[in-house]
Amino acid sequence: MGKPVYILGLSCFYHDSAAVLLRDGEIVFAAQEERYTRKKQDENFPKNAVDHALKAAGITVADLTEVVFYEKPFLKFFERILETQIDVWPRGFIMFHRAMREWMLKKLWIPQTIKKELSFDKPILFTTHHESHAASAYYCSGFPDAAIVSVDGVGEWATTTIGHGQGKDMKLLRAIHFPHSLGLLYSALTYYLGFKVNSAEYKVMGLAPYGEPKYMKEMKTLIHVKDDGSFELDMSYFTYEYGLTMTGRKIEKLFGHPTRKGEEKLEQFHKDVAASLQQITEEVMLKIAAEAKRLTGSKYLCLAGGVALNCVANGKILRAKLFDDIFIQPAAGDAGGALGAALAVWHKKYEGERLPRLGNVYLGNEYSESEFETFLKQENLPFEKLTQEAIIEKTAGLLSGENVIGWFQGRMEYGPRSLGNRSIIADARNKENWQKVNVKIKFRESFRPFAPTVLEEKAKEYFDLDRESPYMLLVADVHAAKRQEIPAVTHVDGSARIQTIRADQNPTYHALLSAFQKRTGCGVIINTSFNVRGEPIVESPKDALNCFLNTDMDYLVLGTCLLEKTKMPKDRLKGREQYLQSFQLD
Fold first, then answer.
1. Distance between CA 153 and CA 138 in Å, rounded?
2. What is the pLDDT of residue 444?
3. Are 575 and 71 in contact (CB under 8 A)?
């Protein structure tokens, strides 16, 4: 056998910095930098993620065959950014000044920065932004042939692309270019509704079911959509081309309300705008999917880009039955670009073999039982050490009722979702757990829904879903007869964002749900990310312990070590305010 081909994929310098390492096309390691730095959506060079990737593979930088960056910064700057600023001059003077400073000081020197950070002396490779998105979905799908749709804010020029994958080959067929962007429309209205751009769009999606789509006329003033899914925005309503905000006074006049500021109360108006935005997004995505089907004739669809995280729209595409099956990249945003860039090089430069469908995203680092024990002893905290079988049975018993549990196991998840290894879990049958977890543990808005994890073999009993959903990327209705049984995960419109789980995907998590189901007759629990509002998902036992000690969480499970809140020394319980000072709220 020859020397292994190690390809390091990188995404950074915008948001959601990440590193992915392939060995002969197989994913060895994948993680976002934010988990290590504790800075949400950290954009900086992913030094920590790279170090952990190399450690996981047992190699050094000298062993790397290729390093690839997920977009082409020169194309982005010299074509899109400079041309746009010339087109909108002089309105964009302030933005131009900021952009020039940022690019001249940092982003134009990305190849040199990467080489310096890694001490890597070979050429750095580059893919385009949407090629990275498309590759991250298609090459992980296991489909022999697929239509590929990528929709996000913007890459170099493209904001929406339709592609076609056949065997090892993949090509992009159609594109919509900046400033016309479904992702930026969603972000602009997110800004108008008073939420943070590039991190809180999912809040708008969660808010939408509380409203009615009363503002479709206004939405269709903002975006003109053709039957083939192509669209144009009326840019007179948006300021992101030239300003430091997303929208201005003209959009306030259109809707008849000012831009919501910060923590101002959410009114019914805001909920209705969110519902209208969600509906137009779904309509556009359905038309794009239909056009992808027409262009490719494929039975299968792959989705990527930030808009592919809109699980309500994904569910609508699935139920439209345009395709026999769809695959949604679980790290659909820019973090997934690192994976796509690496896979594109593996298939294009090395003509590597296709891998099977991505089985799970437990691709980050993990901690051993001895590390858990050593850490807890150093912290001088009481804990109970159990066997693997005993921790499953004990936790299943504790889950029944009102207890909320931090669950920390195995390898960290790659992408924006906690999927059973860095999770906060609770009983879905107890409606009070919805508010308890939202307000007293996550410190977030009370309207936010929780996702259920369900044993895959039990999914059809609870949900109108005929397939697996391992990455929480599909929304489906809860059967009417089951809504009273699992109220804590049934959203106001009767839907749920579902995670299914099989034993081969995560044996420990599946065993926990199986034990809970055996005790209670219910195969569903609440699963939400192990963090509080404004904080990245926990990476280490230390992160998990801090979250446990300073929220109203009842128990913490680190591997087979169990901690109970009532047994913790009172001087270690700092409380919410002190804890929140350690990171920046969104």
1. 20
2. 76
3. no
Q: How far is CA 129 from CA 148, 182, 251, 288, in A?
A: 14, 16, 30, 19
Q: Which two tokens stand for residue 46?
A: 């992913």
Helix (H) / strand (E) element for 87: namely helix 82-88
Answer yes or no: same fold for 6-70+72-126+334-348 and 182-328: yes
Query: Exposed e or buried b for every residue in 300-339, given b needs 16+ CB within 10 A?
Result: bbbbbbbbbbbbbbbbbbbeeebbeebbbbbbbbbbbbbb
Q: Is 566 buried (19+), middle (13-18) or exposed (0-12) by CB count in 10 A?
A: exposed
CATH class in words for 182-328: alpha beta
What is the structure's pLDDT at 148?
98
Q: What is the CA radius of gyration of the chain?
A: 23
H or E element at residue 256: none
- 165: tokens are 């994958």
Name residue, tokens 């977890």: 437
- Compute the distance between CA of residue 324 and CA of residue 274 in angstroms, rounded to an integer: 30
CB atoms inside a 10 Å sphere around CB 259: 17
Burial 76-88 (b: 16+ CB within 10 A, else e): bbeebbeebbeeb
Of the candidates 249, 308, 529, 522, the residue with the CA atom closest to the CA atom of residue 396: 522
Question: What pLDDT is attached to residue 93?
Answer: 45
Lowest mean pLDDT among 44-48, 82-86, 130-134, 373-377: 82-86
pLDDT in tens, 127-157: 999 999 999 999 999 999 999 999 999 888 8
**pLDDT score at 448:** 81
- pLDDT at residue 1 greater than cutoff 50: yes
pLDDT of residue 266: 94
Distance CA 120, CA 123 (A): 8
Query: What percentage of the chain's residues is helix, strand, coil (to nearest 5)?
Result: 40, 20, 40
Examine the pLDDT at 325 and tell me if it is beyond 90: yes
pLDDT at residue 89 in the model: 47
Which residues, 6+ apart, have CB-to-CB distance to 217 below 8 Å? Answer: none
What is the Cα–Cα distance from 568 to 549, expressed in whole angstroms?
8
Closest CA to 329 of 455, 472, 129: 472
- Write the CATH number of the domain with boundaries 6-70+72-126+334-348: 3.30.420.40
CATH number corresponding to 369-580: 3.90.870.20
Q: What is the mean pLDDT of the chain?
A: 92
Indicate the domain borders of the chain: 6-70+72-126+334-348, 182-328, 369-580
| Higher local confidence (pLDDT), 54 or 113 | 54
Q: Which residues contact 307 (CB under 8 A, 6 or more apart)?
A: 151, 152, 182, 183, 186, 281, 285, 313
> Mean pLDDT throughout 267-271?
97
